[in-house]
Amino acid sequence: MNWLDRFLAGLLFGLAFLFITAAVHIISVLAMRDIIDKDVFDRLSSVAHPVHLTLLPPPQPGHEFIPFEDPALVQGVCLYDLSHGPLRLHADVEAGQLLTLSFRTRSAQVFYAITDSAAQHGKIDAVILTPTQLEDVEADDDDDDETPQDLRVVAPESKGFVLISALAGFPSERPEAEARIKSVTCDIAQQ
Amino acid sequence: MPTFVKTLLLLLAGTAVGLCVTLVTLERGVDFNAIKAGPWVAFPKNGTADSDPYSRAILMRSGEIPLATSEGLSFIARRDSAGAPFTPGCDYNLQGQIPQARYWTLTLLSPKGFLIDTGTGNGADYGIESGEERHGFTSTEILRNNNGDFVITLSRHARPGNWLPLGQSSFVLLLRLYDTELGAMTSALNDRNMPKVVKGGCT
To answer: Residues with Cβ < 8 Å from B3, sequence gap 6 or more?
Structure first.
């Protein structure tokens, strides 16, 4: 084997090494969802009940399970699994008090979000459904003369959660913020 | 060395280096779609369907729940306004403008995003329960002077006014603007319309 053969063989191995490195890197980034042990939904499932609203424990040093939480917020979650039926959510909104609702996939990607300013007549009524469930509901609408009043949100995946947040401007306002969160109801809608 | 052994080594080495590159990249973070204004950095696309694969992987790995665009915008500062990394042994003054928002909160966190035990136990002022420590301020509780300006002093030692106690370990600052129109106008942000974090004395 002369020097040129050695050089070409080395170059080939070098290129193959770079190709494998790049491929493994790209695949591992794209497949992170399958690589990690627990996604946000799993983490929340360890403290929250399925379907019904659960008040999340306030973050405390050494006892947080979600990073970058805001200790000034009071938060609640409704975990959903649309294979059991659409999720119906109702919130009464207190004028001037910040209340945000974000509808998320199991890895916390947002597919819809609203704040209290979007409330109609002091309340928010929403239904989260799959595309098939929406078709069924719309077919029922055609038989019904009434205009639907609720906000219909199509979820990209069957499992996910709704995160409800209220701000306690002062520490003494925390009980009121908790009451605002607790007044939100989530349940499986009758189809 | 037989060719198949060489090929096997090549595969193993490529896989190991590829995984290391992923780990280092996700640990260091990426600046795609980052908005920078002075020491503050925001990632408005995080948590949306438009975010890039690296940001998505970082969030999945950390388990963070980023703010939705209509909820607000979150800024992180890992350095002071002069560009020096934060040191818990130094005092810092946070002052200046905060962009228009219905509410804002400032929170002191560890670089991994968890609350720091500052050992001050001054919870009677702020705490959720008695014995709770202060980890931040909200726009409603901040003490302002006559012309509406304010200064937040970050220090390990008690300070008059808006004192945010520092612990013994390294920290970052999170500024969250709730219900802000800024999400659509992030290009208008610069270091003049964001608060400055100025280093004071060090012990």
So the answer is: none
